[in-house]
From TrEMBL:
Belongs to the FAD-binding monooxygenase family. Keywords: FAD, Flavoprotein, Oxidoreductase. Its EC number is 1.14.13.-. InterPro entries: FAD-bind_Monooxygenase_sf, FAD/NAD-bd_sf, Flavin_mOase-like. GO terms for molecular function: oxidoreductase activity. It holds the Pfam family FMO-like. PANTHER family: FAD_NAD(P)-BINDING DOMAIN-CONTAINING PROTEIN-RELATED, L-ORNITHINE N(5)-MONOOXYGENASE-RELATED. This is NAD(P)/FAD-dependent oxidoreductase. It comes from Mycolicibacterium austroafricanum.
Length: 483
């Protein structure tokens, strides 16, 4: 049976899904992308110092190794290039409709009806691949809009503005703020970093890959596969475990963070300012090689007095100081809980995803929602985004979706959606497991949902892959043509 698939989003996950469809011989699919290029987060984020903090060999599709990575952890522009090249060489671009913002998707008469600038179109299966750190979060600071200099969010960096001659104010010290600080320190007139809460930093020198190594990787592809296997094992067995259960892996990371601060910062006052009040890994772990060195430069200052307001010339802190700056960069994170929104998705009986998620976003194994037949999400709620590379997660999810697409294609079934009971049972089990995770040890982080619990997968990263490899049909409300 022919099947028409709609994928929303041409980022890392959407491209992965497209490739899996092609591998299965399905060419009747459309990727809706509201921007004018593929790449998702790697297209939108271009801030100075942008890099991926996952080992490069493991931040690539398992089926498309990249011998060209220049560093152990790849710079952002290289990751962007990798996904652009992938879309081109796999012939996915002809399936992508750029500038196509899908505003509504509705399930009616057994089909998904998508509304985009091209009108309303009908599909058998809907796959959302809209990413989860996509909607910038602007800080709610009094007078922010009165600032007269250039001001932008880290994911909307304005490269037309010169930096070297400017006094820059940077708000936020998460992964993004730390990377920007490390890149700007010493390259701008002055940098003031407004830190609300210090974060632990795991020391990770980002070693360059030599030309000899690249040549060897090009010549012997098994070397790349070995790198994927090695780094995958490393990430899954250490980083994949450390946050979710106490043990030597957690001890290792936490000890590294404590010693990094202790050994890298001499000045007692500054050390105090940089000492987080919470446990390492409670917030998303930050990996950085020379952040502490940068903040000890004379032209870099960490401001810890709380921000009271922004005035036309700068930032006023609680001690009454006006910190004059020429440019304000907001590294204040993203709305993690948006998922597909503002797109309106309406399932059976006119029930929208917003209705289904009134108490917070939930899903069955992070990929499907009761009442939304033949709709699958990549990187949906509670995906293992806090303890794994997202690329293998997307691959596992896309394989899972393909399993259901095969059932539909064979004609054995006409629709499938997880049952309320199975979804509840799965989410209850996750809730019960959360207290063992480091994410619940008392910190403010983007991981936390409305109920104060992390919207993450509370078990080892490898367990998630196992779950997806064994679809449980009995957990689904499956309809056949005869019904
Ligand atoms: O955002 P964040 P991010 N006044 O939410 C502060 C991924 N990522 O963009 O800690 C003052 O972590 C806020 O303070 P506090 C990665 O998964 C990956 O840095 O809430 N400050 C915090 O310091 C990461 O976790 C890579 O007290 C305010 C910061 O802004 C995720 O993206 C690279 C404020 C926000 O930190 C998000 O990281 C970069 C206010 N009103 C990012 N509001 C890779 O390498 C917020 N803050 C793959």
């Amino acid at each position: 049976m022919g099947i028409r698939v709609a994928i929303i989003g041409a980022g890392m996950s959407g491209l992965c899904m497209a490739a899996k469809l092609q591998d299965a011989g399905i060419e009747d699919f459309t990727v809706f992308e509201k921007a004018d290029e593929v790449g998702g987060t790697w297209r939108d984020n271009t801030y100075p110092g942008l890099a991926c903090d996952v080992p490069s060999r493991y931040y690539a599709y398992s089926f498309r190794p990249n011998p060209e990575w220049s560093h152990m952890m790849p710079p952002g522009p290289e990751v962007f290039r990798y996904f652009r090249q992938f879309a081109t060489e796999r012939g996915i671009r002809r399936h992508i409709r750029f500038g196509a913002d899908v505003t509504a998707a509705r399930f009616r008469d057994g089909k998904w009806w998508l509304t985009s600038p091209a009108g309303v179109e009908e599909f058998d299966v809907l796959v959302t691949a809209t990413g989860f750190l996509r909607v910038p979060r602007y800080p709610d600071i009094l007078g922010l809009d009165t600032f007269t200099g250039p001001m932008f969010h880290s994911s909307r960096w304005d490269h037309s503005v010169s930096l070297s001659d400017k006094r820059i104010g940077l708000i936020g010290t998460g992964s993004t703020g730390v990377q920007i600080t490390s890149a700007l320190g010493g390259n701008v007139r002055h940098l003031k970093v407004f830190q609300r809460t210090p974060q632990w930093i795991c020391p990770w020198p980002n070693l360059r890959v030599s030309e000899h190594t690249k040549a060897a990787m090009r010549r012997w592809t098994w070397l790349n596969s070995f790198g994927y296997w090695f780094w995958g094992g490393f990430v899954r067995s250490i980083f994949g475990v450390a946050p979710v259960r106490p043990g030597w892996q957690r001890w290792l990371y936490q000890t590294q963070c404590h010693w990094n601060l202790r050994l890298s910062v001499r000045d007692k006052e500054l050390k105090k300012k940089l000492t987080p009040p919470d446990q390492p890994m409670c917030k998303r772990m930050i990996f950085a090689g020379h952040y502490y060195r940068t903040v000890q430069r004379p032209d870099v200052e960490i401001v810890t007095d709380p921000i009271v307001e922004v005035q036309p010339r700068g930032v006023v802190t609680a001690d009454g100081t006006l910190h004059e700056v020429d440019l304000l960069a907001l590294a204040t994170g993203f709305d993690f809980h948006a998922y597909v929104r503002p797109l309106t998705i309406t399932g059976e009986h006119g029930r929208t995803l917003d209705d289904a998620w009134a108490d917070g976003p939930t899903a069955y194994r992070a990929v499907a929602v009761p009442g939304f037949p033949n709709m699958f999400m990549l990187m949906g709620p509670h995906a293992p985004v806090g303890n794994n590379s997202l690329v293998p997660v997307a691959e596992d999810q896309a394989d899972y979706v393909m399993w259901w697409i095969d059932q539909l294609r064979s004609g054995r079934i006409v629709s499938a959606a997880p049952t309320e009971a199975a979804t509840k049972q799965y989410n209850d089990a996750m809730k019960a497991a959360m207290p063992r995770t480091v994410w619940t040890t008392g910190c403010r982080s983007w991981y936390l949902g409305k109920d104060g619990l992390p919207e993450l997968f509370p078990w080892e990263a490898s367990r998630y892959a196992e779950l997806l490899r064994s679809p449980q049909v009995s957990d689904f409300d499956v309809r056949t043509a005869a019904v």
